[in-house]
Amino acid sequence: MAPRKNAASPNRSGVAKTTKTRSAKTAKPVIGTEIAEFDRDQEIAAYREMLLIRRFEEKAGQLYGMGFIGGFCHLYIGQEAVVSGIKLAMKDGDQMITAYRDHGHMLACGMTPRGVMAELTGRQSGYSHGKGGSMHMFSKEKHFYGGHGIVGAQVSLGTGLGFANRYSDNGNVSVVFYGDGASNQGQVYESFNMAELWDLPVVFIVENNRYAMGTSVSRASAQTDFSQRGVSFNIPGHQVDGMDVRAVKAAAEAALEHSRSGKGPIILEMLTYRYRGHSMSDPAKYRSKDEVQKMRSEHDPIEQVKVRLLEKGWASEDELKAIDKSVREIVADSAEYAQNEPEPDPSELYTDIVL
Ligand SMILES: Cc1ncc(C[n+]2csc(CCOP(=O)(O)OP(=O)(O)O)c2C)c(N)n1
Ligand SMILES: [Mg+2]
User: Is the pTM for the entire model greater than 0.90?
Assistant: First the structure.
């Protein structure tokens, strides 16, 4: 393969990296086949984390139905193992950015349930002072860069975060989440090109939950193996069981190490499933109840951890119930808090916006 031209990658010192010859990096699929060994504490932590996301989303769904949440609201139920497993592999300083199905990502990043719920209900104390809602929350402190409603836009922004990491040589990796539907967006490929050209530290995570709104993957995509969408840019990619938090963690560790060590971007396709409709206004008539039920009963990410904990004798039913109780209390507290907080003052209409 001919050496690339103009492949000098940017950094603050102005030292251009030498152009190098590179053969296709589509390595054999070792990533995605491994399962991380979890000890008891790790299983319990993963169980608690995923349960917090699920209970939070169930509460958000309830509050939406009661009219406390307006606008769009996309629930993450069923996909909890993806963000939980990846967060376990990330280091402090690594950034996360995603689309609008984002509540789980925020909680995994350590943003408070109170702050997220207050934003969902349009309160002053929400992360965007009640003006952003479900799809637009950010926390620079927790390295969470949103929350984006434009399908695919976060991929370009996340590549920019990778560029900033590279430029300042800070050793951080940007982790960019997007969906199977977003994978067909043009800007995703412009981002792939730049990320690979400059060896940017970016891990691209495709959350393949099998549907983009009401359209199944097979009806919308010519190539349904999303891990291979970077092939023409020499970006390696791997498919991962996104319902098993241990598989996700193992793949994420390898991918983060790959990008952090200067080898450039990598794609992980997480094979997952969303149980609820696309958004709260979707009755999900495009798939059968049996299909959803089969996923729930055979692959549920939380149930899998529960079964392992019980089978290994690492936790009793009562201990698991106690964890569920404490998670429900945190979520109930966030809902109670949010409903009693004031709405933003009308003067907030002109703050934090570009006119
Ligand atoms: C540029 C753009 N086009 C269309 C839409 C409308 N839209 C919102 S979500 C969505 C489907 C995206 O599906 P996917 O990427 O698979 O994510 P998922 O909802 O499954 O998490 C579409 C087409 C949009 N928000 N932005
Ligand atoms: Mg999808």
Answer: yes
User: How many domains does the structure of the chain reveal?
Assistant: 1
Question: Residue 51 belongs to a domain with what CATH number?
Answer: 3.40.50.970
Domain that holds residue 312: 40-338
Q: Check if the beta carbon of residue 270 is closer than 8 Å to that of residue 82.
A: yes
**Euclidean distance between CA atoms 342 and 118, whole angstroms:** 9
**Ligand 1 pocket test target in 151, 218, 287 with most atoms within 8 Å of CB:** 151
For the cut 50, the answer to whether the pLDDT of residue 17 exceeds it is no
The pLDDT tens digits of the residues spanning 148-182 come to 999 999 999 999 999 999 999 999 999 999 999 99
Q: Is residue 186 part of a domain?
A: yes
- Pocket test of ligand 1: the residue of 150, 178, 213, 286 to mutate, having most ligand atoms within 8 Å of its CB, is 213
* DSSP assignment letter at 350: G
Q: In this structure, are residues 233 and 239 in contact, taking their beta carbons and an 8 Å threshold? A: no
**Three-class secondary structure of residue 267 per DSSP:** strand
Ligand 2 (ion): residues with CB under 5 Å are 179-180, 209, 212
Q: Identify whether 102 is part of a domain.
A: yes
| Structure confidence by residue, pLDDT tens digits, 62-116 | 999 999 999 999 999 999 999 999 999 999 999 999 999 999 999 999 999 999 9
Q: Would you state the pLDDT for residue 14? A: 47
The response to whether residue 242 sits with its C-beta less than 6 Å from ligand 1 reads no
Q: Interior CA angle at 136 toward 98 and 157, to 5°?
A: 45
Atom number in ligand 1 closest to CA 212: 13
Task: Give the side-chain half-sphere CA count within 13 A for 137.
Answer: 34
Cβ-contact 276, 80 below 8 angstroms: no
Residue 215 CB neighbour total at 10 angstroms: 15
Q: Is 104 in the pocket of ligand 1 (CB under 6 A)?
A: no
